[in-house]
Amino acid sequence: MKKFRFPLESVKTLRDLHAQRAREAFTVELRLLEQAEERLRRARERRRALSDSIIATRSVPFHSGELAAGLTAYHLSVQAEADAAKVRGETNSRLEQARERWMECRRQLEMVHRLEHRARLEHRADCDKMESAELDEIGSMNLARASALS
């Protein structure tokens, strides 16, 4: 029986490497998205806290300096929340791109795996044919020998 040799083994190795790298890039983007969501959550909490403190100061005597500082801080927190939401959106977009690259690499790798499976089946069928031919030849030789002896 001849040994199986897949001619696209190097292609399979390269595609496997590309798929691993794409998966790692996706994982990095996923971590970045989690960090961006955490920053957005903290920015929202800060804006809510400042909003609550501004509402609470309306029930006490009016201090223009404190109110101006509070409003400035509130506007800065609203801007920080908007910036965090923008970063989260950009990160989510990059995550989807990384996911698509990873899935494309996986599809290409699966295609090579299917080709290898088909080649193995063909190799096995060829080996079965060769083995059957050898057994037929041995049987024919035994039959001829038995006929010659009788």
Secondary-structure map with pairings?
Layout: H1 9-57, H2 64-149
Helix pairs in contact: 1-2
Description:
By secondary structure, the protein is mostly helical. It has a domain at 9-110. Helix content is 90%, strand content 0%. The protein has helices at 9-57, 64-149. α1 (9-57) packs antiparallel against α2. It is rod-shaped, with a radius of gyration of 35 Å. The mean pLDDT is 91.
In short:
The protein has 150 residues and is mainly α. The chain has a domain at 9-110.
Distance between the termini: 34 Å
* Rg (CA only): 35 Å
Q: Class by helix and strand content?
A: mainly alpha
| Helical coverage, percent range | over 70%
Unreliable runs: none
Mean pLDDT: 91
SSE pattern: HH
- Provide a count of the helices: 2
